[in-house]
Structure formats: C-alpha cells, structure tokens
Amino acid sequence: MQQLVPPWLEKLLGTAFFSVCRTHGAAARSECNMYCLDCNTDAFCFYCRSSRHKDHQVIQIRRSSYHDVVRVSEVEHLLNIGGVQTYVINSARVMFLNERPQPKSGKAVSHVCEICGRSLLDALRFCSLGCKVVGIKRNGNTSFMLEDISSSTTRMISSSSTRRGEDELREGSQQDIYPPTPPSTSSTRRRKGIPHRAPFGS
Length: 202
Description:
alpha+beta; five-stranded antiparallel sheet; 5 helices; 30% helix; extended
C-alpha cells in the first residue's frame, strides 16, 4: 500500500491546520498553514518556515468555505492526482484535502464521489485526496504514484523539444542560406524637386 500512497500523504490529511503558532503567536502571519514533506510532522507558520524549514520541501494549505484545500500547482509534481475533482478559487485551481459532508437533495446528479457520494462537477471518481486514499485501500485500482503518467509526459516533452529544435534548426538554416539583402542605393530614385514656373519676359 505504501507503493500506492506516499508515506507523508496520510499524515498530511490528518493534520490540523490554521491554529495559532505557539512560538510566533503575536506576529501577523502566525497561523499554521504550512506542511513540510521532509520532516512530516505538524503544521507550522510562515516564520517557522524561514527559520526551521528553509531548504525543505514545503506546501501551503489554504481554506475555502472552512475546508482545507491545496493548490494543484503545489502537488501535481508530487502526486498522481488523476480522478480527483478540482475547483478554481481566486483564480487558482485547487483540490480539497478531505471529504466534505453534503446534505442529501432530491436533485439528480450525473457524477458523484465513489467514496462519500458528494456530487462532482466532472466525470471523475473522487471529491478529495482523502477519498482517493480510501478508494486505493478498498480497490487498489488507482494510485498516487507518478510512474503511470511520467512516461507519457516524458514522451510529450521529448517530442515537443524535438519539434522545437527542428524548427530552430530550420530557421537557422534559412537565415544562413538566405541572409537579408541590404537595400540598393543605385536603384533608389531621388524625389523630384518642386517645379517652378519660369518668369515672364518683360
């Protein structure tokens, strides 16, 4: 199971965030909304990061409607987040850490979370990272590991780099073979002066 779920993820999902830092409680940015993947311990504040986790791999947790979220850009290089619903909040794409209780409604929905039954916007499997962890433990038919998508991503990057290199090579060849021709001064015609009428004879 550790091969399917990173060892730090479940600890992250069970961590309480947004308490006041005991060391920097009087400071302006003292809320504990950061987590260190290297230390894998408790949440800490902005000032603790500067003093204790300066060179560590740290992600920042944010809140939406009293629930913890993380930006996709902060975890997509660490986890295979496929199958998890994302949302755009304050111009940033985020996903929820854990499931959110949802009152039952009589409306029919097209897509629901496989674990908690929460309605989803897209045809995906999970509403949060926590629900994907539960799904992995139940079925084992998905994973947080990046091996499944790294090869295709590498092929896309390699192909893109190759095409870009070929384009640059072609452009460079054209510049070498066909240098710009400077304007010819011999063929440039001078503009005629303003014609003047000859004076009348007296």
